[in-house]
Structures are given as structure tokens and as C-alpha cells.
């Protein structure tokens, strides 16, 4: 039997965490299926209003009695100049024309609103007695940590470097996700620069495991039994998998995103900040390629995310993958069209893991 | 007992291959120590004249009766315009001034010479009955493969993507090193663009293992027992380790390179083509940083390598690490000052591996 504090910590059967993918992917079907089959389902609350989050939590609760969690994005202070916004709008205009949508009247996000949403989300997690809360893009304040702990919430941080993992441990968080450079979607770095934080999972996990005493959850490139076993060899006590769950039938991802991923190779992902303002890994497409030359100049997260939302929305409804954010890790060849039960069954089919 | 065709293939005790680091690192002491302690020592013949290679092979033979190997760089066709060379010389001039060396009269490499050296190296490997030959930056021609096989040489390719691994298998090579993005030193990509070929070891190894039937050797970020075990879980049959052997007392690396590596963190490596003209991973320093803005414009490998040689040589003799190529993988925190015997002993201290 493998020593596994992660299963004890989260009160789950298998050390498999479904990555909290934001933007409508973590439907109640996906989250509940993962939890019902012995893993930890996670709601990606990034971008969600607190009301929508509350509704989704209640729906998940109707579908599972097992523990599940919510991930929140920690807001940054950001500056938004009208000049940068106008420049970005101009850069985005040709895509709006091509998609035949109007220049939308976007409500630019305010720092105070971002912090308000964040605090509201945390309050809902507490009120709804969600047992696990994980953080991306930063760590909570000491006060927020204390509040979560007082209410018995298990708190998990996301680190991309040893320094970030140490900060997470220092704050008293219960576990740390070590996100390797293979991971799809947003980079979770918050102390380290993005470029410096692109450490492969094979390198990151043992270096983090040596540096902290809290349980380490490996993330990045892990798709199956082999990845879980390897992660455990490297010193992790569990895994967080995104892309593998993204292509499951229960995920709320756009059908063409799923289809593209199932046909892609390891060479086709790239890093871009042209969708949200933060760096993220996805399948390269026309929008990413064309924006490469502008991407350093685009406004910060979450401003850019709001500005590109109409494009992404129209692209989704018009089935135009060339403008969608096709998040994917570096192992799309290992992605399968299957349901959550089949995926988890495959992973735990090794006696070393299930015993 | 683990199924291990790698140990049978190479007639070695443990599935541990010392990466063939070029540039004077793979001394006869290092290569022989690795082979004598049950791994596979490898001479990095890149940049070596065939005469020096012959001498080194003979020295290694005096120090070990165990199998060892030689790695060769496959030359590319390259173009060298006097204009680009002059521009590069101008870019490099301030460093020569600072190191107080003259603008050296460099003999620019010719494509024909590069191919001649390559063929001579292969001839020496055959003549000296070196049992194993591995290739980087490409694959041998069919004729060369046949010749090597006729002489009983075991032939190994280096791949950074699935496509490259498949090409290696198709040619009839005996095994493939899957080099993940964590790896230190030169990227071995030859069919895939560098940017697309930066696949983390956790992603690369299972995708390669699924795509080929020849044995896969994992490389990139592997430093200890954990890395070997994880690699085997991912579908590899052995590992190739560079950085871990680089800091061993037997390695011929510059003492300050070794010292720097032992004090570095995972955040400090970066990719650069400013030393040789090909992309390689090393500890970031002043030269790399300052050359970032020029690096896309610099001449191709091996022209740039020849042009920067006087700088690297002077930097080494003057102990100026700011101008040295401090190759390192992404796990420098796991590097130790130890001898080869201690390193191998640590790796095989797991009964699953030695049995």
C-alpha cells in the first residue's frame, strides 16, 4: 500500500484530482462524476459570479455526496489605461469583423470588483460548506486563510516553482499542486516570472517534494496510470489532471475543442497570453499565431479576458476553432473520448495504486 | 524484476546512461567510472577531431573493460555568409575586449569538413570496436546505418518528439533517447522546430513509448532514483542523465561551472542559441541575457560555435562565469558533489531496480 495522505486529507478513495478548469468546463456532471468515482471533482470558479458559483455548488451537491472542491483565482492589482484598451480593441477589431459581431460595449473590470467577487466566492465556499478550496494565481491573505481554517475548509495552493511551494507551506496551506510546464490552460505562477516558472513536471515535483513537508500533488502532462505512478515515484502523493478530464464526455468543453484535442499531437500546443492577459497553454491556432507579434503589448488580466470574450463567444457559437482558446497540456496523444468512470478505472487498474 | 531490454542491449548492469556531453566534460575518468560502476559511459564526440576521439577512446579502454559508447553530432548543411560572420564578430567584439583577447583569426567551418569529421568519427568508432554509437541533431544515412550494423555496433538515436522517434525506429536504430524539455545542454531536435519540440519528459516519454516498439531511454530532469523509477513507470526502459554526472568529481567540467550548478535553483536555467547557433539549456548569465536581443540573427551552428570559442576559452581560463556556457537541466537543486560510484549507488538503492 502506498502511503497516501492526499486521500486522507480530502477523504477520497483515489489520489486523483480533476483540475479546476474555468470557463464552463467543470459542469456539475463532470465534478460529480469525478467525486462519485473516487476522485476529487473541482469546480473552476474563475470568471464566475458568486451567484453562478452558488448555483453550481448546489447542483453538484444534488449529484454527489462525496467531497468536492472549488478553485478560485486570486486577483492581482492591475492597471487599465483607456489608451491600452483602445489599442487592444483596434487589434481585436478584424476578428470581430470576421465573426460579424459588433464592437461590444464591454464593462471594463475594476480592481475593487475583482476583489469583491473573490471575497464573495470564498464566502459562498464557507456558507455552502464546500470541504476543499484551492487557489490559483496567488495565495490568500492570512485573514482569509484563518477564516477558511476556522470553518474546516481544506486549503490547497498552486505552485510552479519551489519558492512558490514554500510560500504556500509557510502560509499553512494543507497541500500544494506542483504545476509543471506540460500543463494545459493557465500558468499558476505568482511569485516567479512566467519564463522562469516553466519547469517540467519531472524536474519540478522532486525539487518541490524535497523543499516542503506538506503533500505535493503533481500536475502537468499526466493522463493515465503511468503518469500517476510516475508522480508518486517522484515524491508526489497524488495527481491533478486537466486535459484527461477535458475530453471526458461529462466535461462542458465545446465539442470542437474536444475533437481538436483528440486529433492533436504533442507538438501542437503553445503558450499564449493573447486570450486572457495571463500565459496559458493551448493548441496553436490562427488567433494565437497572428497575435504573437502583439501579445506582449496587450492589456493585463483580467482586462484582456473581458475584451476577448465576445470573440471567444462568437467563435464558439459559430464553430470557428481558429478563434477559440483550445487549452491543452502537452500530452494530447494520450487523450481519449471516454467517460469519467472509464478514465478513473484505467488509472486505478494497477494493484499498487488501489491497494 | 523489471523487464529491461536496455541492460541486455548494452550489456550493462543498470539502465543508467551517462549523457554524452560534448566539450571536454566526458573525460576518460568519467566515462570509465560510469561503465565500471554498471552504467553506460558515453564519450561526447561533438566538436572533437577524429584524432582526439581515437586517443580518448583508447584511454577509456585502458580504464574499463565494460561497454561504453560514443555520441556523434550529425552535421547539417549550413550556409555561411561573410556578412553574417562580420556582423557576429562585431556583436562579439565587446566580450573579446572585456576578456582582453584579440579578434581571433578563426578558420570558418566548411560543410564538407563537418561531414568529413563526422564520417571519420564513425570510422574510428568502427575501427576501435566501440560497442555503442548514439546520434544527436539527426540520424545517420541508410548506408552509414548498414555499415554500423555490419560491424555489430548498437545504434541509438535522440528524439525530442514522437515524429523524430518514429523516424529513428524506421531507420532500424536499436533504441531511442526521448529528450524532454527539462534536459540541459543542446536540444536534439532535427525534424521538429525547437519551439515545438520542447515537450516535458512527463508528456514525452509515454507518448513516444506508445508510438515506437524499440526501447525508450528517458532524458530530461532525471537526477536520482526517483527519476529512474518514474521514467520506468512512464514506459522507458532506462534513463540518460547529464547534469547529475556533470557535477560528479570525475567530470571534466570547469570547476566554476560545477560550483554554479550546485548553487542554482530550478528557475535559473534558460534556452539560448547564442553560444553555438543551436538551442541549448544552461544557467542564465550575463552573456546569455545580453545576447537575447541578437540571438535570432546570429549565424548557424557550427559557425557561431567557432566564433564564440575564443570567448568561452578565455572565460574559462580567467574564471569568468558570466561568459561561460553553463549547461544545466532544470533540476540543479538535485545535483550533488559526489563521485560516480556514490551517484549510481543511490540510484540503484531501490530493490525494484537492482533485482
From TrEMBL, chains A, B:
Q: Which InterPro entries match?
A: Aldolase_TIM, NMO
Classification via CDD domains:
NPD_like
List GO molecular-function terms, semicolon-separated. Answer: nitronate monooxygenase activity; nucleotide binding
Q: Which UniProt keywords apply?
A: Detoxification, Flavoprotein, FMN, Monooxygenase, Nucleotide-binding, Oxidoreductase
State whether keyword Membrane applies. Answer: no
Recorded catalytic reaction(s): these are: 3 propionate 3-nitronate + 3 O2 + H2O = 3 3-oxopropanoate + 2 nitrate + nitrite + H2O2 + 3 H(+)
Q: Which cofactor does it need?
A: FMN
Gene Ontology biological-process entries: response to toxic substance
- Function field: Nitronate monooxygenase that uses molecular oxygen to catalyze the oxidative denitrification of alkyl nitronates. Acts on propionate 3-nitronate (P3N), the presumed physiological substrate. Probably functions in the detoxification of P3N, a metabolic poison produced by plants and fungi as a defense mechanism.
The entry assigns this protein to a family as follows:
Belongs to the nitronate monooxygenase family. NMO class I subfamily.
Q: What is this protein called?
A: Probable nitronate monooxygenase
Which organism is this protein's natural source?
Oceanobacillus halophilus
